[in-house]
Specification:
This protein is an alpha+beta fold. The protein has a domain at 8-53. It has 15 helices and four strands. It has helices at residues 8-21, 26-36, 42-55, 68-76, 83-91, 105-115, 117-135, 174-242, 248-283, 287-290, 309-319, 321-342, 375-440, 446-481, 495-498; strands at residues 143-150, 161-170, 347-357, 360-370. The protein has a four-stranded antiparallel β-sheet, with no helix packed on it. α1 packs antiparallel against α2 (26-36), α6 crosses α8 and α8 (174-242) runs antiparallel to α9. It is elongated and about 125 Å long. The two termini are 67 Å apart.
């Protein structure tokens, strides 16, 4: 049977299909293609094949929808005893057995750095900012253009065709390349600072709630004593009432006091649950698991001292992240001004090219000149933005110095109140000791003794409030510097490692 000859285009498609469907090697496939096509069209086939290979490097869409059930399962199965948490804490410098017997701020922070969803979001944001840094260098990308011509209508017995390419080479001065590189690095610095800020805020929240937990635990112990004393006082007054030595109002007053103490117990328990729930949320673990941990108690016998304000001013100017971020913003504005100044001059590009027109080799060369548009206005705008960022740096630094001085003064005032409260507690203890001596010799009744004990506990509660206020003031002073100055932490000693994902 007669079969019409196949065109070059049909042969090419046929051999492409055969090459892709069979298991022959790449070399054999190319050989088939090349032997089926005129030598004059090798270059066209080659360029098309390279284009197809380039498409193979493109990324495809991957479905990644949040799975609610999987998220819940991961949360419920978080275990502080897993080996990866131990390894992570050891890399941060923790040199004691894990999990620890008692949990302080250091141990809680290690766990939060590992599990916290807040930090996972911050780490992802850091990666996003790093992508922005890469985008800042796209201006220096080179361009390659491919031009093809093919006509189906024959001319002089042949089908006209042509193939060529042009390479666009923009000329950038060394100064502009340096400025673009500087801009890219500033984006990376900005991303790192934002993650560092999240780590400090997490540390600050855990520290403050740990202070609250300690104060709550101390008050609950005192309130238990008050409830026990109130119940014994009710028994004593009831006995007196039965013998006519006390009236109904006195008995009702004792029962009312007990009711207040029981109500306070419920309030303290509610506060404890709220503290545990809040800390568990920051850490990223179930509250029921955190509640099982044995927390370290703060020592109320010592009063941390405060250095001079200059120490904290210097620390704040060195470590405050918002000040560093304002400097990065100023740096970006300065870079934009440099780019605006560079864009005053025309941008030059050359475009060497090569075209193969039915066997004729044609070289071409093009010179491009992009003239600046409204460069004066752009420069004026960039100058004003830089001036604004300069003033914002100044404003931020002044606000920081003002904050440090204010928090330092408040911490000193809180310390003075604490010293006075400690003195009052000693005096109350001496008064109660005197009451015990008088009770021992029969000068006062047991009711008077218990009332003296309740008065002493009330002074002790005031002391705990003053100690809590002082720790809160110290924490605010520390936050104004954003560096551990008043409390000894190892947890912030290796910031670079904390910026990484613990699962990497």
């Amino acid at each position: 049977m007669f079969q019409a000859p196949l065109s070059d285009k049909t042969l090419f498609l046929k051999f492409c299909c055969l090459g892709l469907m069979s298991n022959v090697g790449l070399e054999m496939f190319l050989q088939r293609v090349l032997t089926s096509i005129s030598w004059r069209r090798y270059l066209c086939v080659g360029m098309l094949f390279i284009s197809l290979c380039g498409c193979g490097q493109m990324k495809g869409y991957v479905l990644d929808q949040p799975d609610s059930d999987q998220i819940t399962q991961d949360f419920d199965t978080r275990d502080i005893t897993r080996e990866s948490v131990d390894v992570f804490a050891a890399k941060l410098g923790y040199n004691r057995p894990w999990p620890p017997e008692k949990w302080g701020l250091e141990e809680l922070m290690y766990t939060a750095l590992y599990f916290s969803p807040r930090l996972k979001v911050a780490r992802q944001n850091k990666e996003l900012f790093e992508v922005s840094a890469q985008l800042s260098g796209l201006e220096i990308q080179k361009k390659v253009q491919v031009a093809t011509e093919y006509h189906t209508n024959e001319v002089n017995g042949e089908k006209p065709w042509g193939l060529g390419f042009t390479v666009g080479l923009p000329f950038f001065s060394e100064k502009k390349q340096k400025v673009l590189s500087e801009k890219s690095l500033l984006y990376v610095d900005d991303a790192t600072l934002k993650l560092t800020q999240e780590i400090w805020l997490l540390h600050s929240e855990l520290r403050n709630n740990l202070f609250r937990w300690n104060a709550n635990a101390a008050k609950r112990k005192l309130n238990i004593q008050k409830i026990k004393l109130a119940r014994e006082l009710i028994d004593l007054v009831e006995a007196r009432f039965s013998y006519g030595f006390a009236n109904r109002d006195q008995l009702n007053k004792r029962k009312y006091d007990l009711g207040l103490f029981l109500e306070q117990e419920l309030m303290l328990e509610t506060e404890r649950l709220e503290i545990v729930s809040t800390m568990a949320g920051f850490i990223g673990m179930p509250a029921i698991d955190l509640e099982q941990l044995v927390m370290s108690h703060l020592t109320f016998d010592e009063t941390p001292d405060i250095s001079g304000v200059e120490v904290y001013r210097s620390a704040a100017l060195l470590n405050r992240i918002d000040l560093q971020e304002s400097l990065v913003d100023f740096g970006l504005a300065d870079v934009e001004l440099k780019l605006a100044l560079i864009k005053q001059y025309p941008e030059i590009s050359i475009s060497p090219g090569y075209f193969w027109d039915q066997g004729d080799k044609i070289w071409n060369f093009a010179l491009g000149l992009a003239l600046p548009k409204q460069s004066d206005v752009l420069i004026l705008q960039a100058e004003n933005v830089r001036n604004l960022k300069h003033l914002e740096v100044k404003e931020t630094q002044i606000n920081i110095l003002s904050q440090v001085e204010g928090y330092h003064a408040m911490a000193q005032s809180a310390r003075a109140r604490l010293v006075q409260s400690r003195s009052n507690l000693r005096q109350a203890n001496e008064i109660f000791s005197g009451a015990e001596e008088r009770f021992g010799v029969g000068n006062i009744s047991r009711v008077d003794l218990y009332d003296g004990r309740l008065a002493y506990i009330a002074i002790a509660e005031q002391f705990i409030d003053q100690m809590s206020d002082y720790f809160t003031a110290l924490a605010a002073l520390e936050d104004s510097c954003q560096t551990p100055l008043l409390f000894q932490y190892k947890v912030l000693a290796s910031m670079n490692y904390q910026l990484k994902d613990p699962l990497e």
